[in-house]
Write a structure and sequence with these properties.
Length: 171
């Protein structure tokens, strides 16, 4: 029953999403569509979620849990993270690793000591275990990703220092 409800809910959300995007297509105004994406008005499939803690994130960041560890034998969790422009994680590591699937906007992924990689919708990032890194939005765009985080000893992440303005401004 829960599954059927979930499928119905997802179908409804998808229906409205398609309905909205179809409307803008029938207007046949590509510029307006692009402008809406630039202005962060694209509609996410999943809810925005709760404001992320300022102990782990800089700027405006929202986290929506999608699959809890309890549902997956404590092995991993899945969640959506929405970074408003300028929003980002602190530097951090994952004990097993993490996969990021970028669904909206523009952003960055950077490993310590390496150049930052630009993120766009469709970007897939595989983060090895114990590699220090951060991810977040571009200055002029939000960025949304799904994060699949593996868990070891009840922990999926070790938080480190904030990304400094100097590090972010020099991308
Ligand atoms: Mn990470």
């Amino acid at each position: 029953m829960k599954i059927i409800h979930s499928i119905l809910k997802t179908s409804l959300i998808l229906f409205f999403y398609i309905a909205i995007t179809s409307c803008s297509n029938t207007n046949n105004n590509k510029n307006t569509e692009n402008m809406n994406i630039e202005n962060n008005m694209a509609t996410s499939v999943f809810p925005l979620g709760q404001r992320g803690s300022s102990n782990w994130f800089t700027g405006e960041v929202y986290v929506q849990g999608l699959v809890s560890p309890d549902e997956m034998e404590g092995l991993y969790s899945v969640g959506q993270v929405t970074f408003e422009p300028d929003g980002k994680t602190y530097w951090h590591t994952h004990p097993i690793g993490q996969v990021l699937l970028v669904t909206e906007g523009k952003g960055w992924y950077q490993e310590r000591g390496k150049p930052a990689q630009p993120l766009i919708p469709g970007s897939v990032v595989t983060i090895p275990k114990d590699v220090e890194h951060w991810h977040g939005a571009a200055k002029d765009s939000k960025m949304v990703h799904i994060a699949i985080s593996n868990i070891k000893d009840n922990s999926a992440v070790t938080w480190l220092a904030p990304v400094t303005d100097e590090e972010y401004n020099n991308l």
